[in-house]
Amino acid sequence: MTGPDNMLEVVNPFDQKPIDAVILADWNMIDNWLETANNLHRNRGNWLPAYRRIDILKKTIKIMESRSERLAFQIANEGGKPLKDARIEVSRAINSVELSIEELSHLAGTEVPMDLTQAGAERMAFTTREPIGPVVAVSAFNHPLNLIVHQVVPALATGCPVLVKPADDTPLSCKSFLNILYEAGLPEEWCRFAPCDIPTAEKMVTDPRVAFFSFIGSSKVGWMLRSKLAPGTRCALEHGGAAPVIIDEDADRQTMIPNLLKGGFYHSGQVCVSVQRIFAPRSQAADIAEELAAGASELIIGNAIAPETDCGPLIRPREVTRIANWVEEAVSGGADIIGGGKKLSDTTYEPTVLLNPSPDARVSTSEIFGPVVCVYEYETMAQAFDQANALPYAFQSAVFTKNLDVAMQAIQQLDASAVMVNDHTAFRVDWMPFAGRRQSGYNTGGIGHTMRDMTQEKMAVIKL
To answer: How far apart are CA 171 and CA 191, in angstroms?
Structure first.
């Protein structure tokens, strides 16, 4: 929340107690930063050589490792991610920096054959890759360290200056990471901490000096900003979905149920590929819903900084109210509450399992982004695929089966950028391609893929 003198107050989302505050940047400040970034890129004498970038990133890794517990606590404290999961996020963030260093050795051009026709004879050609230019990154709250690393480090590794606007709820992890970069030797003009209000952020994103715009957040905001980008600005958008899971009749329920519980209730469902819609055979759907509800009832809900917490708070009290309204609407439309379904406090909602919500209910058509999992009955596998593919969102999906033919059919039939076989939809490692289809996003995330997006090819043709 914005406080006096243009300060952004940061609170613990469980108890709403203030933690810290950051100063919002105004347009004059950001305008100067953009001009500096533009000059850094346009004057090639200012470019940081790869060996220096690598040295800075190696020092960054060492500092992060020495402060891993402090960074994890900060993630839990400002973002509500349980401490046990926040520790994993820190490990992933460190690995993401390592991946950026490794990827630099693969970020190379190619030879282009020229004598395929007489017109190209007596020539040789090759390509090189250059930094695309100033990057503006706008990030989300749910992985406040690793998402920042995914947006900032590929830019720096490839030689692009970057301005980063963290989520208003979680700016502290971003600030800590940028301070680590400075401590590791990065000149501050190469990476600016730019929390700001919405009008200023839009002006920054759409400025013609921006070469690449990286956005992680809501579909509505991302597509709106893309429509306003200056001519020539490239972009990558990562939104969300309503991830579908297909369960085959022979699925191993003993291993599947814990897997779905993790995929559905990790970070209280505040993950863009969180398990949301589970399609099960009619004869098994009710039993599967009961088993999920039983597992969900054992999850410990509380302040994310407590070591025993499994499910922390929703990021804002209004999200608890929204989810309660969506569940109430689904029940009014015919859904059965198999487990949960209660607002526990202003900041927490009980992990919930619904059976057979209406296809028109918001829990069926929109991203819940909360601790709610829906189970639907299906008669045939073809019907399950049709229901899974019915929305304008398409991100990661999953199928649980012992049958190779069913697994291959799901891989072919599901409209998704990734199909997990016998694993939940929220699985990710940081080097794999990570992309939303249709309204779920644009371009591809993952360290190496982002680094390629933030560079551009230049070809040299030499007449012999």
So the answer is: 15
